[in-house]
Amino acid sequence: MTPPQRPAAKHSAAKPRGAKRRRAAEQPTTEQPTTEQPTAEQPTAEQPTAEQPTAEQPTAEQPTAEQPADSAAAPPGPAAVPPARLTIDALGRKCPIPIIMLAERITEVPVGEVVSVLTDDPAARTDVPAWCLLKSQEFLMSADLPDSGWAFLVRRSY
Asked: Which residues make beta-bridge pairs with 118?
């Protein structure tokens, strides 16, 4: 049995697909100039821009009620970091010993307290922050020690 035949097309000359759309795109359009209405991207005189602060938006020179004028000029310093409740001395120990010591001893401090890890192993500069991220502990900061090495501060999260 043979499959049914499709009826022949009405037009004998086959046009490539999309020819009508291409022809319409090629024709020049004659649009009337319109008056531009302000859009979300174009601020009007009533809409403030980033350069024009409003009364609700304080500038850097205007301290807010929550922020006194003196604290705006003072940069945050090491005084913001609480003192360590436990110090782990891993100086002279190589990777992974400083991380193992931290993992074993962090449970000795209450949740929310700070542990300091002293080490001179360069791998600890990446290992301690990575361990904190992996174990959901809070890495606070690292500081250079006076002789050699670093002190890493970690806050116990759980």
From this structure: 89, 151
